[in-house]
Structure formats: C-alpha cells, structure tokens
Amino acid sequence: EDQVTQSPEALRLQEGESSSLNCSYTVSGLRGLFWYRQDPGKGPEFLFTLYSAGEEKEKERLKATLTKKESFLHITAPKPEDSATYLCAVPFSGGYNKLIFGAGTRLAVHP
Amino acid sequence: KAGVTQTPRYLIKTRGQQVTLSCSPISGHRSVSWYQQTPGQGLQFLFEYFSETQRNKGNFPGRFSGRQFSNSRSEMNVSTLELGDSALYLCASRQGRSGTDTQYFGPGTRLTVL
Description:
The complex is a heterodimer of chains A (111) and B (114).
Chain A: E1 3-7, E2 10-14, E3 19-26, E4 33-38, E5 45-50, E6 56-59, E7 62-66, E8 70-75, E9 84-91, E10 99-101, E11 105-110
Chain B: E1 5-7, E2 10-13, E3 19-24, E4 31-38, E5 42-50, E6 53-57, E7 64-68, E8 74-78, E9 87-94, E10 104-105, E11 109-113
C-alpha cells in the first residue's frame, strides 16, 4: 500500500536555526515526489518536484533532496515568514493520477 | 498567468442540504482534481477530470460528484450534507494527464456544515 510519512509533526525553530524535515515513502516505482507549502486557510503552494534518487533542488532558503526511500527538505537560516505546514506527496502507484499526501510538518520560526 | 481560482471561498450549510463548488483551472490546463482536507484525515483525493470525463475517483460515497465543462472549468457537488463533510475543498489543475506533472492548487472552499 502506498504510504507517505512525514516527521516531525511539528517543529519550532529560532530565526536562523537551520534544520531538516523528513518525508519517507513506500510506493512501487516512484514517479516523482512533490513538496508543497501550505499557510493556514490557504491551498498548498508548489515548491519542488524530484524525480530520481540523488536529485537536489533549491529555492531561496529551501533545499530538497531525494533518496530511494525518503526525501529531506533542508531549511537554512529560516525566517519567521517560513512558518507554514510543509507537505510532501507522491503519485499513486496504481496508475491513477492522484497524489498521496503525508500529514505534513508544521513549522514555526520565532524571531 | 492567473492561478487556479475557486468559488465561493466560504460556505455555511445545514445537514441535508446540497452544495456546488466551482473551480477554474490555470489557462491551458486540461486536468482538474479535487481533494478534501480535514484535520483528522489530511488531504484525500476525491476525483479527477480530463476532457470532460471523470478519469479517477477516490473512496468517497456517491453523494460526492463532479463534472467538467468544455472550457476545463469544473464543479463538484455534495448532496445530503453531513456534519463530517465540513472541510477545506481544494481544486488542483495540471497541464496534461501524467501523474508526474505538477499539480497547482487553488485557495480552496471552506465548507461548514451545521
């Protein structure tokens, strides 16, 4: 059964304190892994797509990496505006064009 | 390029009523998917439409239905509302049908059932 697990559930950081969020997945034949950011009451905002192990992508203070079993979202020197819930998702392996989402990591960055 | 738009943004209904939500995809995007988001279950797939045809359906009762028009705009309908239908309903669009294409989400419709 396809499964996506994110850890930790919640993370509190001081401004400038770097850290990493984890997304582990169980899916047959990974066809991509997506990271989204979601602010309260809003829709998920697309961040990155990773397709193969070893791939890395960066955007401002965020860097996403992918291995054969998990992905990491590294946040370098975060700012309060980085506070949000970060979601990862993988396409369902059964051929349907749907995304299987993890429960998310709620990140709070304090000044 | 304008993003995915959803209307209305907020709805309050009572049990037993029905509701229709609307989604306009990004221009040129032909695939529209709908998701339900609740604190307990997270984001769950409802259905996907492409070229006016439902291609996939998630594990939701028949009270949840949808359709897509020739301009790719989509609507979803929930009949005989239950308290548990209170959720954020999200629409996402993508250009093609491949599961590897990026899905872009709208702001959502917050449905409250009293």
